[in-house]
Design brief:
With 291 residues, this protein is mainly beta. It is 11% helix and 41% strand.
Length: 291
Amino acid sequence: MSFAGFGAVAEQLRRSTVQVKNGRRGLGSGIIVKSDGLVATNAHVVAPGAAPVTNGSRLSVELWDGSSFPARLKVRNTRRDLALLRIPTMNLTPATLANSDELRVGELVVAVGNPLGFMGAVTTGVVHAIGRRPGLGPTKWIHADVQLAPGNSGGPLADARGNVVGVNTMVVGGLGLAVPSNAVKRLLAGDLQQASLGVAVRAVEVRTSGAERLGLAVLDVVAGSAAEFASLRAGDILVGIEGQDLHSLDDLEGALEGTEERLLRLQFVRGDPNKVRSVAIRLHCPQVAAA
């Protein structure tokens, strides 16, 4: 790519990259994916534990020209660390989402974001690997040697033509990890909706019936949530789903994915670790008008 060509690609990406501001957690980045105000970002950029649809009072989005708008959270999938926001404006410049399955190791990629609040920073690198990362569940990641810093999360990773191949998410082992763009396409199509259980959890080891097993300790229960209606409370420890032992937090995140309303049966302990209880929780999936 020539310097002139790189400059044009960078400018194109800047116009489609936004700064996401969260009153409680600071700054992140986002990608305009629809001209009518739909923005994709990371789930961790928006407030943890938030309901799929909120009043948007804490969230705002600043565009490349400095204009700012309140943002409304439309859907959030924590398993794939993706979220969609809606802002009340039109005629935006959306990014082009590439087919990330066609990305190859060794390709040049360009990352744009707002590290440490600096708007529209650009960095380049090369794709090192595409696939799972140990300890991060079954999600496929794009691994690239792009320099990311706090504030880059949620911004675009693009190919040499400026087409977005991923959403920058984190740095692990010196490499930037990005969620592939095809996952964003699935979220836009409504295939990755995730019901909200309404709990904050932490992985713990618990001994039940003389055996050590993984548990998810409930740290907080959101008022009015499905978990509260099912009488779960802080201090409970989730140990199973549909009668199957938990092996990671991803088991719970995966169980919440789906587009239909349904009952989810959870096993948990309360107080006595040798007494495993069961509860049926009715999940309601968010309504998303992303297209």
